[in-house]
TrEMBL record:
This is Exopolysaccharide production protein ExoF. Residues 1-36 form the signal peptide. It holds the Pfam family HH_AprE. Residues 234-275 form a coiled coil. Residues 184-361 form the AprE-like long alpha-helical hairpin domain. One of its GO terms (molecular function) is polysaccharide transmembrane transporter activity. Keywords: Coiled coil, Signal. It comes from Rhizobium lusitanum.
Length: 424
């Protein structure tokens, strides 16, 4: 019996395409991961935590191999290195996640002499912490988050330390103001995210900036970030759909080729049957040898078997086309479901933030009501002077400089907060 090899190769390709499509869509649906907020050009340091995923596309087999032994979580140690299985200690301090990913793939390829270089994805799972000291309600170590400013960091530590009654109203106002700034920044980010989700749901190519964000100075940055994310998600979706479309085209071509082959074999079978009948007629009259009769019957049987294999391969290709159509429908439905879930989660977070913001504004109003000028004056008639100082490790050198409330904080920074009273 003749085995039709092209059908098996296409079946393996179909399986690989489906597996890759599911991986890409699954990765796209993840929310809250640290890599979504990575600092551009960020260089790693001691205590940074990384999440590594490694996979290898095997060209010869047309499959994807998951390097689960290498994939996992790693922490940059005191020596500035991470320890990777099969590779050993790899310098990480001062490098970017892209550089680490490239080094892992190259290291594995050299170690095992692989034809195809494994693809590594390195994401920040946790930045090294920041530290607050001085006039802070709860000084100490705190986890770092992207877009952290000095004022936001102070809010993480519970705000300014509460001292005597003479400074209470001013500090209440400062704490409430710090919380309000954090909530407003988060609200702006969520509103822009919702605008991006609305654009994706309605199939628009551009994001319409919400009216309440148009006057904000950071609106342009928020819009650029969401546009970049939308373009990436759209491109991934188009790539997956195009892969399924290409697969259907290949399978359709196979069906057409098998149909033509089936026609040719049908004609050959008709000729073989006619020859077999003629030989049988002559053999019955003793005009033909029995061996030729057997040969004619065998040839007709072989052609019938080959024709059956061709028809079976054609049916299998048709089934694969139907499966690809179903996968395309499932992919689109999952995409819409993911957008709906993201929209629901965003609305819920906006409602929570609005409640927190209202509380902070009420606290600010209460502080103002109890002090003539709670933002910069205590009841004794003195100004509250707050000084922020950042101590930062820069390529092994310690730098110390004064900062403002909106100064950006980097992982590993130490923020010192000091206050004093000065007469007007």
């Amino acid at each position: 019996m003749i085995e039709f090899q092209p059908s098996k190769r296409l079946a393996r390709a179909f399986t690989s395409v489906r597996y890759t499509a599911l991986l890409v869509f699954g990765a796209c649906a993840i929310t809250g991961a640290a890599h979504a907020d990575n600092l551009p050009g960020y260089h790693l340091g001691v205590m940074d935590k990384l999440h590594v995923r490694v996979a290898e596309w095997q060209t010869a087999e047309g499959t994807v191999r998951d390097w689960s032994v290498v994939s996992g979580d790693y922490t940059v140690g005191p020596s500035g290195s991470i320890s990777i299985p099969f590779i050993g200690d790899m310098p990480a301090m001062g490098k970017t996640t892209d550089e680490i990913a490239a080094a892992i793939g190259l290291g594995l390829q050299k170690q095992f002499g692989l034809r195809d270089r494994p693809s590594a994805s390195v994401e920040m799972s946790q930045f090294r912490p920041i530290y607050l000291s001085g006039e802070i309600q709860n000084p100490g170590e705190f986890p770092f988050v992207p877009n952290l400013t000095v004022l936001k960091a102070v809010s993480l530590g519970g705000g300014m330390r509460r001292a005597d009654a003479g400074q209470r109203f001013a500090r209440d106002f400062i704490n409430a103001k710090g919380d309000a700034v954090v909530y407003m920044a988060e609200r702006g980010r969520l509103l822009m995210r919702k605008a991006r989700l609305l654009a994706e749901v309605t199939g628009k190519d551009d994001i319409e900036t919400p009216a309440e964000l148009k006057q904000l100075p950071q609106a342009a940055n928020l819009l650029a970030s969401e546009k970049a994310l939308m373009q990436t998600r759209s491109q991934r979706m188009k790539t997956q759909l195009q892969s399924l479309e290409d697969l259907k085209t290949l399978l359709q071509n196979e069906v057409e080729a098998l149909s033509k082959k089936n026609e040719t074999q049908s004609r050959q079978l008709d000729l073989a049957k006619a020859d077999r009948d003629k030989v049988e007629s002559l053999a019955e009259r003793g005009l033909e040898l029995a061996s030729r009769r057997i040969s004619a019957e065998q040839r007709a049987s072989d052609l019938e078997a080959t024709l059956l294999d061709t028809e079976t391969a054609s049916l299998k290709a048709q089934q694969d086309i139907n499966k690809a159509n179903q996968d395309e429908i499932t992919l689109r439905n999952d995409w819409q479901g993911s957008l709906a879930q993201d929209m629901q989660d965003t609305d819920k977070q906006l409602e929570t933030l609005q409640l927190k913001l209202s509380t902070s504004q009420s606290l600010m109003q209460e502080a103002v009501a109890q002090s003539a000028d709670a933002s910069n004056l205590d009841p004794s008639g003195q100004n509250v002077n707050v000084v922020y100082t950042i101590i930062r490790d820069d390529n092994g050198q310690t730098k110390e400089f004064q900062a403002q409330e909106n100064t950006q904080v980097l992982p590993g920074d130490l923020i010192k907060v000091s206050t004093g009273l000065a007469m007007r």
